[in-house]
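fyi for ur records
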Amino acid sequence: MPALANQTRLHLWFPNIFEFKGGIQTYLAVLLDALQCVCPDHRYDIFLKHDTRVSSEFSLSVNTRFHFAGNLPLSLRTQAFALQVIGQGLWKRPNLVIAAHLNFTPAAYWLKCVTGISYWTIAYGIEAWNIQRPDLRRALHHADRILSISSYTRDRLIKEQNLDPSKISLLPCTFDPSRFQIASKPVYLLKRYNLKPEQPVILTVSRLAEAKRYKGYDRILEALPQIRQTLPDVHYIIVGKGKDQPRIEQLIAQLNLQDCVTLAGFIPDEQLSDYHNLSDVFAMPSKREGFGIVYLEALACGKPTLGGNQDGAIDALCHGELGALVDPDDVDAIAQTLIQILQGTYPNPLMYQPEALRQAVIDRFGFDRFKHKLVELIQSHSDIFISCNS
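which gave:
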């Protein structure tokens, strides 16, 4: 059944957004929210590969319908999901498919070849770098629009895949400033970790998985002995859990850091702002980050922030305007930069003005800015989007 003449129908193919919360899931949930804000009269069919139900926290629109494949065995799920989205595409004939992961683009390309339905896709980070699969490369070249969350990923795509720059649009990550506020160090956390209010605290937030070692917590641990020579009471807190924890504990023991490192494990989302406020600097010298929403959250708490200079952190920290960028493989540079930040001598005055830092990150990456960029995209594709609040 074709879409109604005066009502745009969008099919959104998502990996998941409800039952697992990572950077991609957070981004897609915000994208859906923003689309429904600026185009409330459109019809949305959301196909979720891994989810099984809608979260009770999600506000449902009368024009939105969810389709779940997560109840199927994992061994059958990919094929079943592909059949579902292609079958629904052939039947409903949406105005646009948004294949929200590059792995979904071959199915979108096939659907376009058969029906002429346009498709967009989204490039985040590592999954978009060094693509070798011929079917993915072909599907990328035939996409009508590619949304990239960072200029770093966009530039790599253009160079590696020889893509037309005009077909790639930037739609950077956003965050919820209301969840991240400037506050004094929480007393309950000072007591929990036996810390003094004046004690310098470094914070990293990351899943502790082998695949996440690129986040840079190893390098910070290796830098701590050098940092302690200047700041002997420094304390390092890593928030997150995962199967890499035993190896990290072994590294802590090898470096004799048991008295100055805390592995906080899993914490509820509502406590994350408290941990940022407990810290004096947020540090994640990664080298394979697509963007890094967690940088924005730290900045919204007014915290000096350190990232790597070889990935999407460059975008999140605005090429060093909002934070410090270092070589993620240079332990000495990490140590010296963290010492400078904690001593208040790093040559970026904005990092020591919490309210101004918070306002700067809201101005650049707040939800209103995200919606504004989305509206610009919609206005440039008025052949697809009809009757939006733009």
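Confidence is low (pLDDT under 50) at residues 1-5. thats all i got for now
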